[in-house]
Amino acid sequence: MTQLDSAPATQQAVRPGRKRDHTRDPEIMTAAMDVLAEVGYERMTVDMVAARAKAGKATLYRRWPSKADLVLDAVSCMGAAKAGVLPDTGSLRGDLVALLSPRTVHDADHKLKVMLGLASVIAHSPELAESIREAFLEPRAAVTRALLQRAKERGEIAPDCDVELLSTVSSSMVISRAMLEHRPVDRAFLLSVIDGVIIPAAGTGPAR
Amino acid sequence: MTQLDSAPATQQAVRPGRKRDHTRDPEIMTAAMDVLAEVGYERMTVDMVAARAKAGKATLYRRWPSKADLVLDAVSCMGAAKAGVLPDTGSLRGDLVALLSPRTVHDADHKLKVMLGLASVIAHSPELAESIREAFLEPRAAVTRALLQRAKERGEIAPDCDVELLSTVSSSMVISRAMLEHRPVDRAFLLSVIDGVIIPAAGTGPAR
Fold it and tell me: ipTM strictly over 0.90?
């Protein structure tokens, strides 16, 4: 990422003591994600994001010298949000299905559109790929991992179940479906992954 | 795809009766895939492919007016190859492992590099995405589907196993790993998908 501290130096010299205003950041980050999801990285401009966020262009350029900087920051912020409480329905299937609220499915679809908008740059930027992985895939994988681990500990699933690998199945299938099949990633598809892959692959534990 | 028949009309008028030479096509298609895997779609040029295939530039431009035409044809050709005999080791795991010959793993890795080279255009071209799916993913999914179906018929796996969905798991996990994790898709990883996901998810049949 470009060094951000050097560019605005003159600005700060002109107005000594003036702090950079970060209060509009959440709106700007959200606007950046929305523009990315709608038009993709190539056609996206910092001006579009400023217009969407109803923020001054100068404010954006001062803080993010390039489109790449803005996108990298926006992706990272998206990952920093949430975590939340783990569902605890008493069964692994119940827990996994509880994750599929309309809100979550909608959020996941939005993230997916952002990812598709970034497809052209992911291949050339390992740094961006890593940010995307951390922001979009890892939080969800961490939740699935925790649910699988808990189910293993209470003896509901197979003791040799590969928790690490299984926790990545759902996002992999979602990405592949969206990128290469251009088919919708809806609740029905997500349920089929739970019932057709994850639950049977997790096996049944010795305690049953 | 651009209409190919109109462009070479003058050539044919000058040398009546001369047929277009297709004997070098396999080398040209292979060269196109190699260049794509090495430098990616943006940096690839038709000239690079001509040089790699030791073919005349004019030959290539006559047949493929644009880089997009050449790539679409090369991807389709890649899919037309093979199919081959299904392995028949007597067990589903044996069959799936039999698919992981060094040659197959090497071929899959090359295809993956081609796909990564095309990542920037996949998002904007449903036609190319579909060609890639048909050429790279569908043949392998078809083999896995046939092996799962056969195992189901002989009662080795669960009668309600979702064959269709399970046959897409491996390629999805490969794509996601390569694109977003930039980690190697080697034999060890492919084996872990067989043993950690596909085999346990397929379950055990009533005949056992």
Answer: no
pLDDT confidence of residue B58: 92
CATH number at residue B44: 1.10.10.60
Q: How many domains does chain A have?
A: 2
SS3 content of chain B, % helix, strand, coil (to 5): 70, 0, 30
- The low-confidence residues of chain A, meaning pLDDT below 70, are 1-21, 79-84, 207-208
Shared-domain flag, residues A116 and A32 = no
Q: Do A165 and B132 touch (CB under 8 A)?
A: no
* Chain A: closest CA distance from residue B125 (Å): 10
User: Is there a single domain that holds both residue A115 and residue A175?
Assistant: yes
Q: Nearest by CB to A200, from B173, B176, B201: name it.
A: B201
DSSP string, B165-202: HHTTHHHHHHHHIIIII-----HHHHHHHIIIIIHHHH
Q: Is this model's pTM higher than 0.95 or not?
A: no
Q: What is the pLDDT of residues A155-181, one digit of tens each?
A: 999 999 999 999 999 999 998 888 888
| Residue A11 in tokens | 């600005």
Q: Does B84 reside within a domain? A: no
Find chain B residues with C-beta within 8 A of A201's C-beta: 196-198, 200-201
For A39, the closest chain B residue by CA position comes to: B124
Interatomic CA distance for residues B37 and B43, integer angstroms: 11
Provide the CATH number for the domain around residue B122.
Answer: 1.10.357.10
Picking from A130, A173, A202, the nearest residue to B168 by CB comes out as A173
How much of chain A, in percent, has pLDDT values that exceed 70?
A: 86
Shared-domain flag, residues B31 and B112: no
Is B144 found in the same domain as B43?
no
Q: Is residue B181 part of a domain?
A: yes
Element containing residue A12 per DSSP (H, E): helix A9-14
Residues A13-31: tens digit of each pLDDT: 444 445 566 777 889 999 9
Whether A172 sits inside 8 A of B168 (CB atoms) is no
Residues B55 and B126 in one domain: no
Give residue B119's domain range.
Answer: 92-202
Nearest CA in chain B to A182: B126
Best residue in B43, B145, B176 for a mutation probing chain A (most A CBs within 10 Å) = B176
Q: Please provide the distance, in angstroms rounded to a whole number, between the alpha carbons at the two ends of chain B.
A: 52
Chain A environment of B165 (Cβ under 8 Å): 192-193, 196-197
